[in-house]
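Sequence design from tokenized structure. All designs in this work follow the same two-part layout: the structure record, then the generated sequence. An example of the structure record is given first.
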């Protein structure tokens, strides 16, 4: 969190499962081990896309899944 940033009313939900070992996560999407939408493509590192003035996303499936599910 940043000082002065207003908290939105929508509650963030966690991703189920155990996070991977962060010291040796390797290439690919960092959420691929726990994401219900993962595919073989997620083994490759996704490009970062600016979706708002202060929000970026790195997900191969963002366009098809939608902003409510990803990011």
């Amino acid at each position: 969190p940043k000082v002065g940033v207003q908290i939105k009313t929508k509650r963030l939900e966690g991703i189920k499962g155990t996070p991977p070992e962060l010291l040796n996560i390797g290439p690919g999407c960092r959420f691929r081990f726990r994401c219900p939408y993962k595919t073989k493509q997620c083994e490759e590192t996704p490009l970062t896309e600016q979706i708002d003035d202060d929000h970026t996303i790195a997900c191969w499936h963002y366009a098809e899944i939608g902003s409510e599910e990803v990011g």
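The first strand starts at residue 49 and ends at 52. We note this feature because it recurs in several other targets discussed in the main text.
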